[in-house]
Amino acid sequence: LIPDLAMARDRSTGWQKTFYRILALGFRGTEGEWVHLRNAMNIFAFAIIPVMFSVHTIVSWDFAMATRPGWSSTIFGPYFVIGALHSGMGAVIMVLAVVRGTMKNMKYFIRPEHFEAIGKLMLIISMAWAYFFFNDYLVQWYGGDKWTKQLLEWHEKGPMGWMWFSMLVLNVVIPWAILWNRKWRSTPWLVFIVGLGINVGMWFERYIIIPISLTINRMPFTWRMYKPGIEIPLGIGTLAFFILLYMAASRLIPLVPVWEVQEGQMAHSLKKYGRETVVTVSELD
After folding, report:
1. What range does the domain containing 185 cover?
2. Tell me: the pLDDT tens digits for 15-40?
3. How many independent structural domains does the chain possess?
4. Cα separations (Å) of 147 from 65, 66, 182, 264?
5. What is the pLDDT of residues 118-175, one digit of tens each?
6. Cβ pair 244, 253 in contact under 8 A
């Protein structure tokens, strides 16, 4: 975004010019600055992958090292990573659908083929999540531990059993039923519903892993149901605050990198060969 911030700096006045000047980091568009920018983009594109794995596996191993029923699992690391990708892709597709439908001229930048490509990735991730979920379930069920089996029955048949089954429907059944079809996964409002369902389903999964699983342990006299209190307004407030920050940022920072759009338009051209119009792509130095 640095070139876009520099562009905004050169076209604004007052406090906005000061704001963009600070964020642009003195970018002037020289050849050396472009080289450094592209090198930095390549480095961060790869560096973010191990960061993502480390963040989510640290949390998962905190659970896996415990001796509580339902938490002592050796696959919690990749399971949590896949879960983060699952909910993340659902959130991304929701934001894209909302931005495309509510902001002017966004249909030119966010097209059905983008939803179709992300829909494929969502389908693959949903399959991977289902694999790790049932792998974890079967290992615990087959392990023979008395308290773990009782916990699994509590998940399915307890007062919150509807949440366990809803989690599977929202995370597996609905994505598999819709995203296999190219026309359906290219429809923004339909994939928005799938993404919303995935995020609700992943929230159910975390609720099952923590509050519900804490109900059953190896000391029956300590069993009790979790009843949320202040957590409800805190959760709603956190979500509302995130939406507020995102909307405020969208008024100051471009949602679509302008320089990349211009670069793509320069690289692509239409040429006519006989009766056919072909899109050609050239390399930009």
Report:
1. 66-223
2. 888 888 888 888 888 888 888 888 98
3. 1
4. 17, 14, 45, 58
5. 999 999 999 999 999 988 888 887 877 788 888 888 888 888 889 999 999 999 999 9
6. no
